[in-house]
Every structure is written in C-alpha cells, then in structure tokens.
Amino acid sequence: MSTAKVNEKAHVEHHDHGQSPTASPTTSRADPSLENLTAANRKLDNPLRGIPRERLLSDVELFAEEKGLKDILLELRKGALVAQDPAAFESVDLLEENDKYHIRRETTHRYSQTWSLYYMVVMSSLAAAVQGMDESVINGAQIIYPEQFGIGGTSQRDSWLVGLVNSAPYLCCALIGCWITDPMNEALGRKKTIFVTCLISFLTCIWSAFTNTWWHLFIARFFLGFGIGPKSATVPIYSAECAPASIRGSLVMMWQMWTAFGIMIGDLIDVAFYFVPDHPHVTGLKWRLMLGSAGIPALIVCCQVMFAPESPRWLIGRGRYREAYNELARLRFSPVQAARDLYYIHVTLEAEKEIARGRNRLVEMFTVPRNRNATVASFIVMFGQQFCGVNVIAYYSSTVFFQSGFSRVSSLLSSFGFGLINFVFALPAVFTIDTFGRRNLLLFTFPWMAVCLLITGFSFWSTNPKGLVAGVSLGIYLFGIAYSPGEGPVPFTYSAEAFPLYIRELGMSFATATTWFFNFVLAITFPSLLNAFKPQGAFGFLCSLVLRALGACPAFLPMRTHAAYGLRQVPYGFKKFILRRKNVKPVRLYIDEDEGEVGETVGKQEIGNVDLGGRTKGESGLGDVEKRQMKEDQA
C-alpha cells in the first residue's frame, strides 16, 4: 500500500463518522461537488491533523522505505509528530531538548535563520532589484532618446510612439511572459527559471543600448519582457517555498521592497550617466549607458543563483526526496526541522494531487466560488497597484518634473529623490504587513495616495513658479510615502497567499499578467493623456481610479463580515491609540474552537488562506501556533 493511500485511509477512518470511504472527497474519483471541494481544500490546512499516532508513525515508516530515507527515519517520526500539532511540540516524547530548542526559536527568534536561507534572501532581493532597474532606467533615457529617433515632438503620433517604446516589456509580460511561468517552472525548476530570466534581462539590456531606431528599441525592450514576466512570478514563490512559516510573509513582500531599491538605483544611474559626453561616432552615449547598465545586476544574479538552494517543494514534486531533504537541511538549523518540513510538504502535495485530479485548473479559477473570489481580489489589488499611478511616476517623473519648471539635471535628481523615498518607506512594511494585515494597510494608505495625486495635479494651476515646483515635489514625494508600505508590497503578497495550493502557480501567473497588462496600458497612454488632459486632468483621472480601488477593497477582499469587522475596530482603535487606554479589549473575529465557540472562518469567507492579521495558513501547518501568538498579542 502506498504512503498516499495509507494517509488517505487514516484520514477517512478518523473523519467520516461511519460513512463509506467513497463518500470522502479525498477518495472520490468523480468530479466532486462544490461542498466536497471546499472540504478537500480545508484538508490542505493540515493533512496530518486527526490521524492516530500509531497510524501516523506507520505511514512515516512506509514513506521512508519507499523514498530511500530509512537512515533518517527517527527524524521523520519526530518531524511528523511536530507537524501534526505544532503547538504541542513540547509534549512530543521523541524530541530531545536540542530539537525543542530549535523549534521553539522559530517563534521566539523568527529572524534567526541559517546562512543558506539568508543567501537565498540576498539572491532573491537582487533579482527584485534587477526588476526595479529594468523599470526605472527608461525614466532618464526617455527625456533624451526621443529627439535622436525623431519622436520627441508634442504630436499625438510622437506621444504614442514614446509610450509604445517605454511600455514594450509590459506588453510582452501581459501577453506571453507571465503565462510561460508555469511551464518554465515545471521544466526547469525555480533556480534555473531565475537564471534564464536574468540572462534574458542582461542580454536585452545590452541589446537596447545598441539600437538606432525607435522600432528597433521597441523590439529589444519587448524581448526584455521575457525576463521580467516569469521572474516577477517565480521569485516570490521561490522565497515562500524556501522560507519557514514564521517569516514567510515578510520574505515574500521583500520582493516589492527590493524592487523599490532597484528603482532608486536606476534613478541614481540616470543622474550619473547624464553627464557622460558623446564620443566620436557614438550618438546618445548617455541614454545607451543608462539602458545597458540595468543588465549588470542581472549578470550578478546569474552567477549567484546556481549556488542557492533549490525549492524543496519543487524537488519533492519531481520525486527527488533525498535532494529535497539535503536542501532543507541547508535551510534549517536542525535535522528534525528539515524532516518535519519534508514530510509535511509531501503529504500536502499528495492532498493537492487528489484535489486536482481530473480538473481543469484554468476553468476552476473562475467557476469555483472559492477560487473566483481569490481571482477577483487579486485582480483588484493588482489593478489598484498600477492605476494608483506609481509607475507613471517611476517612468515619467523626469518628464513631469521637467514640465513643472525643473532643468533636466534637476528633474533626474528629483526622480532619484522619489526612488529613495519609495525604498526607505517600504522598509517598515516588512514588519507591519504581518501586524496590521493586508486589508488594513490598503484601506489606510489609499486615501492619502488620492490626496497626494490631487496635490500634484492641482499644483500645475499655480502661477508662481516656485509654488508650482514645491507643490509637484510635495505631492509626488508624499505619494511615495503613502504608497510604499501599503499598495506597494500588499498585492504580490496577497496574491501569493489567496489562491488554494492546487492552483497557486496558475493564480500567480494570472495576477502578474494582470499587473503587467495594466502597467502596459498606463505606460503607453500616459504621454498622450498628459498632452490631452494636461497634468491637472491626468493626475485627477488617476485619483478617481484610486478612489474606485478604495471602494472595491472592503467589498471584495474581505467580504461583508470582514468589512463590518473593520468598522467595529474604529472605536477600539480610537480608544487604544488616540486616548491611550490600556484596558481596551479588541474586537474578535476569529474564535478558537477550544474556547467553546466557532468564529468566522477564512473558508466561509472564501478569501484565501489569510487570517485576520494577514498571516498565511495552510502550507506551514502552523495555524495553531499563530492563533496562540494572536492571543498573546491581544493580551
């Protein structure tokens, strides 16, 4: 009997309360009903929960024998018992004190991790910085190259062509790049996908520097999208699959933080290369160096990534269990932690396969309510991330500053100032995203972003040149302060968590395709929008879209119960944080079953496996630990 069947039998014996095993959603070969699918998805929260101890240890022994892991059988037994009930690890009799010490530190010292894990974090962060530089170097180049290519005028044709060249990578991402993420990951794995995409970024950046017509530059930048699209979906997934559950949310959102760092460096490079004079027989050397320089960090990632650990989850999915254990041993402090995660990933993947068997994942993204709500919510946050106007500022801030009266050098320096603010104020999100939650960050920052866009646009009505410059600068910089901890990191983190595991990679492809499509729409239309509506109308239009996204967040992200819960938090927040009262009790949404009541559950609200504080349930099997931590926080 296979390990999967043993697990399946044990699960049915414990949960069916006398029903035939064929009634279980995990054993039915027919296409299950929506009710059975919901039950099957809940099983993914922890497939080991409820299995009797002797049956679990027997399953582990069969697993070790089948996979050639008999030499670590004791560690696998310990790990399985810990994964079954993470909150009760102190009472597991097989654990030695050294084992308990390392497991305990996962919650008491979350950021004390292995060197290999932080090497992976650095590599992933640099890959994100590559993305940011790819996006921002065009900001400085596009105030220079249009004149050389004969598209620097104010006509509608020239505006559309400049927008087309600037937006070319994002057109490729939306139409092709993001949709090849799943097959690339299936064939190559996470590390090699990152290597290939960074190599493409390096080659296309160098190619862009040698172009001599606008259409040639368009083609080069279009192919850059093959480097940007799959990388933007793969790196957050790779980080999530390597990281321990206690810091998974923080590491996933670092993608956006280090993308902001890359944008800042790209703006700084624009300033540095602006002063490079042309050499004989070379026209436009400065903008060529700007575009080509973005390839250097991509080359560094190519040299670095092959030394990083591969995703254990991907290796297990290919039956390479010994390699997966070795990689987990590099990423964790103790063999018990590595064995625990190895076995837990294995049973989770088996449960996923059972759910996905005979299903069309693409169709079920839109036909199953649980999946459809995750899809709609991801669409909204990704739409909001683009049409809040942040990439208008990232790509065209130099043009906006120039039109407000800055010199070209001052415009580039001011753009660097925005990049610096964008990065600095993204740093607090590492800590706030798992404290205040995704939805609360969005609801708090959206109104300020709308106000800042109005300040920027309305400043162009000023008849005082100094007032115009001050108003535009203030509006753009305050916008960066509001955007960075909220709409900046939340969409990618939320999208990586919202989908059920069996369609997560496809869901992330959809989410990233969404953000790059609207990125393309914004980038190609903004020059014409600026000419037609003037800055006042252009920024006012973006403000209206921000307000629409603000209205959609409470309606679609947390559903009605969560929206009502948010309103009930207002008096509590006023008393605690404004009046500074210490004995105020917070409003409760989730109530543990062991407290005698069952509160609103994530499954009922159909918003993904994200709890009140934005923490991820499911893969980690640490839901109980996080509930206990929430109790301590509330106390």
Automatic annotation (TrEMBL):
It catalyses: myo-inositol(out) + H(+)(out) = myo-inositol(in) + H(+)(in). Keywords: Membrane, Transmembrane, Transmembrane helix, Transport. PROSITE patterns: MFS. The keyword Transmembrane helix applies. It comes from the Eukaryota. Residues 120-561 form the Major facilitator superfamily (MFS) profile domain. One of its GO terms (molecular function) is transmembrane transporter activity. Pfam families: Sugar_tr. Residues 1-32, 609-635 are annotated as: Disordered. This is MFS domain-containing protein. Its main location: membrane. Residues 1-18, 614-635 have a biased composition (Basic and acidic residues). Belongs to the major facilitator superfamily. Sugar transporter (TC 2.A.1.1) family. PANTHER family: PROTON MYO-INOSITOL COTRANSPORTER (PTHR48020), SUGAR TRANSPORTER, PUTATIVE (AFU_ORTHOLOGUE AFUA_7G05830)-RELATED (PTHR48020:SF25). GO terms for cellular component: membrane. SUPFAM superfamilies: MFS general substrate transporter. It comes from Mycena indigotica.
